[in-house]
Amino acid sequence: MKRYSPLLLIAVVALLTALPWFAGPTLVQFAINALMLATLAQGWNIIGGFAGYASFGNSIFFGLGSYGVAIAMVQWNLPFGVGLVVGVIFSIIFALAMGGPVLRLRGHYFAIATLALSQVMSAIFSNLEVAGRNIGLVLPLLRSDTLFYELSLGLLVLATLTVFYLSRSRFGFGLIAIRENEDAAQSMGINTTRYKVLAFTLAGLFCSLAGGIHAYWITFIDPNSAFDLSLNVKMIIMAVFGGPGSVLGPVIGAAILSAISELLSSTLSSVASLFFGVVIVLAVILMPKGLTDCWLKFPVTRWRYFINNIRQYRL
Amino acid sequence: MDLLLQVIINGLLLGGLYALMALGLALVWGVLNIVNLAHGALIMLGGYAGYYLFTLMGIDPFLALPLVMLLLFILGYALQRYVLTLIARSPMFNTLLITFGLDVIFMVLAQLFFSADFRTINPSYAGAHVTWFGLTFPQVQLYSFAVALLLTVGLWLLLLHTRIGRAIRATAQNLSAARLYGVNPKKIYALTFGIGAALAGAAGDLYGVVSQITPYIGATLTAKCFAIAIIGGLENPLGVIVGGVLLALIESLTALYVGPTFIDVASFGVLVLVLIIRPQGLLGKTAK
């Protein structure tokens, strides 16, 4: 963090806060989306980047958050704020109930278990009467992009501050220890189960709030879009592209990738997806540790940085 | 009662195809430690290969199998040799991400070249069936079950009784020791991925006969293959058959007794349960 001056960051946030007053509606709508993705990437960073658990289940929290808001507003006639709380409660219950057993799994097995869980949740919600089954729910319309923009920005700042705190707290170091060597961390006296479940819950909290805001903004949800697996993959890619385990990496990764894919999708949508696939493949091969690492080491080793990466990881 | 029996038979027959779909995934996972998220996309490509061989050249889908497998083998071999080998030793995320990236690329390319229309390989005998003991056996499903069984047993024999099979198993067990004994891991890895892709291609060809192909079936099929591989265990190809049959049975019985909308709850729920209770798979370890 020493490389970023706090004053500069505050200036950037202030500038971003003022954005709706000088930018056009298209830009604001793009920004809401980008902020949401950045929040998701930052949330994933807690469990994936710090604790090293490749969660494909964070989209579950996104879905629970969306459904919390939708069910509270449509079925129970409660205000939006209460809906957010309902979504967060759903997410915490889920994280505590499933976190323990699933976080005992490691590596690929954890990834697949969370992936399967997201399919289960999607299938369960498409059978729930209160959630509108397959058809989904239509939320009341609120035309205020500015409100959604400021909410999303606030949430991203909150998530980033949390990760900043993690990066220098005992809790965060505990998670890094788990990532580097879980057995050693345990023998050092870290209660790994509690740390992992807490990280999972915390990651879920931000995803859930982002989902809630998104549902009200879009005004429509169904099981497929709420528990969309590709959203989960997107947050992983953005975090890994930016630099997993760093404070600003996921945000920068999300900003760059969503800007590029937005620019491309305005011309041709299938080209945008193709580009997305190619970027993933190239980024994983050329800079497997993300932009942050590249930013730090490229000035020293120059173009050899990429060759060294390939040399290090190829068979 | 007859309905239940018929449902079980349909499940069993479908289970053979399921096993074949998951076989390549389990092989690549077990040997290369790559969880191939693009496996479903390879099945999809196999389906298109079979479709075009049938519609453009009139080659029967069952006769086209070797050709489809050869095409997918070449693709898989090249992928591993020139792309995946570059990240063979990088952390797990990266292998997941790169295969996901490949999945996206294949999907978009399929959409561009083959359009998003539903495709079905439709030979003259597609609707035919035989009746034994008052139960119906659709011919196509019967054939594809036989082919799936044949290929699974073939893979098993290949792994157990050939030089290449020994080299593959040695590489899976201990890379550096295998290297010391003169195994070239790059070649073995590429070969293994090629075989995995060829099996996916065969499964895709048969899938195209019993179901519909679109560019978007990849992700669902990959998830299904995971379920089968995990339920069956990664160590023994015969376990994958059990996994495939079990999953197919679970799906058909759920559809019969609970309702078709609960199929995914049941199959993925079972997967999660198996993972939590026995992550090495129902037949893992004990099969060795």
Label the overall shape of chain B: globular
- Please state the structural category of chain A: mainly alpha
> N-to-C SSE series of chain A?
HHHHHEHHHHEHHHHHH
Taking Cα atoms only, what radius of gyration of chain B do you get, to the nearest Å? 19 Å
Please list the strands of the largest sheet of chain B in the order they lie side by side: 1-2
Report strand % of chain B: under 5%
Class of secondary structure makeup of chain B? mainly alpha
Please, what is the oligomeric state?
Answer: heterodimer
Number of strands of chain B: 2
Low-confidence stretches of chain A: none
Listing every helix as H and every strand as E from the N terminus to the C terminus, the arrangement of chain B reads HHHHEEHHHHHHH
Number of helices of chain A: 15
Could you tell me the strand content of chain A as a percent range?
under 5%
Silhouette of chain A: globular
Largest interface between protein chains, with number of residues from each side: A-B, 46 and 48 residues
- Count of helices of chain B? 11
Biggest beta-sheet profile of chain B: 2 strands, antiparallel
Task: Tell me the distance between the termini of chain B.
Answer: 38 Å
- Number of DSSP strands of chain A? 2
- Percent range for helical residues of chain A? over 70%
Topology:
The complex is a heterodimer of chains A (315) and B (288).
Chain A: H1 6-18, H2 25-50, H3 58-75, H4 80-103, H5 107-125, E1 137-138, H6 145-167, H7 170-180, H8 182-187, H9 192-218, E2 220-221, H10 223-226, H11 229-242, H12 249-265, H13 269-286, H14 290-301, H15 304-313
Antiparallel strand pairs in A: 1-2
Chain B: H1 2-32, H2 39-57, H3 61-82, H4 92-114, E1 129-132, E2 135-138, H5 139-161, H6 163-173, H7 175-180, H8 185-210, H9 218-232, H10 237-257, H11 263-277
Antiparallel strand pairs in B: 1-2
Helix pairs in contact in B: 1-5, 1-8, 1-9, 1-10, 2-3, 2-4, 2-8, 2-9, 3-8, 5-6, 5-8, 6-8, 9-10, 9-11, 10-11
